[in-house]
Amino acid sequence: MAKCVLGVIGGSGIYDLPGLEDARWERIESPWGTPSDAVRRGRFKGREVVFLPRHGRGHVFSPTDINYRANIDVLKRAGVTDVVSLSACGSLREDLPPGTFVVVDQFIDRTFAREKSFFGAGCVAHVAFGQPVSPRLADRLEAAGRSAGVPVVRGGTYLVMEGPQFSTLAESRLYRSWGCDVIGMTNMPEAKLAREAELCYATVAMVTDYDCWHDAHGDVDVQSVIRVMTENRAKAQDLVARLIADLPDEHEPCPAGSDRALDFAIMTAPDYRDPALVANLGAVAGRVLAR
Ligand SMILES: CSC[C@H]1O[C@H](OP(=O)(O)O)[C@H](O)[C@@H]1O
Ligand SMILES: Nc1ncnc2[nH]cnc12
């Protein structure tokens, strides 16, 4: 088994991971284009950690403009085996007030203007995605959150909208009627691409607002999101520190099959594969394409 290397993708308001030893910014090239930023590589309690600010330092990229493929590819190239996403989100449920950390287990993908796969013409693949979150990593996040003393809820469905505008009232009510729990703009296609790259993936969705459906609360705005995220940032960083302290040395096999996702996924016969695409897939799918 491979060494366990944690990747952390920091969302809105989280542009660094303080407390890393020997921390340095490292630019990693990707055949998929430009990632959001260099990665911040360092060690924590002897374990290697790779941090990437999802929107770039200074919050340069909107959810639509983020190059999710390049981001996942550089994490894979950096040796990451397990990815934790830290994300701000709106609440679609009365009993998930701002300040709640939801370790979600499902997603509904309503995005439509993003590249969603590493595969395509010349190398077609279909990975299983019924369980988009790696349950063991989610267990560890839940435990770390509880030991950090934050209000953690285990399980929930995260609706991913395109944005960048927030939802209309009709949309917000629709998503509630679908049984969604939280709403954000970034975890898709990130989670899909992590699965294609055979990385374990789990999210801490940190509630910052009640979107626009709640009669007793004003509509979401960026100021309130940032205010709550500023309050939550130290807690999120403490949660990650506790997670890292408790991680095993070796990457644990994923019950959702994330780390073997490509075993039977590639449909295109070897002789028909596009060599240029296969070359781009070197980091993501080299394990199966090389054999
Ligand atoms: C600044 S509010 C909207 C923005 O915040 C969330 O991003 P992230 O998941 O990276 O924390 C949300 O998805 C939107 O992109
Ligand atoms: N209400 C909301 N909708 C979409 N993304 C969000 N990020 C934080 N709050 C959000």
From TrEMBL:
GO terms for molecular function: S-methyl-5-thioadenosine phosphorylase activity. The keyword Transferase applies. Substrate binds at M185, D209, Y210, D211. Residues 6-245 form the Nucleoside phosphorylase domain. The record marks S167, V222 as: Important for substrate specificity. GO terms for cellular component: cytosol. The keyword rRNA processing does not apply. Phosphate binds at S12, R54, H55, S87, A88, T186. Keywords: Glycosyltransferase, Purine salvage, Transferase. Its EC number is 2.4.2.28. Pathway: Amino-acid biosynthesis; L-methionine biosynthesis via salvage pathway; S-methyl-5-thio-alpha-D-ribose 1-phosphate from S-methyl-5'-thioadenosine (phosphorylase route): step 1/1. GO terms for biological process: L-methionine salvage from methylthioadenosine; purine ribonucleoside salvage. Belongs to the PNP/MTAP phosphorylase family. MTAP subfamily. This is S-methyl-5'-thioadenosine phosphorylase. It comes from Pseudoxanthobacter soli DSM 19599. The gene is mtnP.
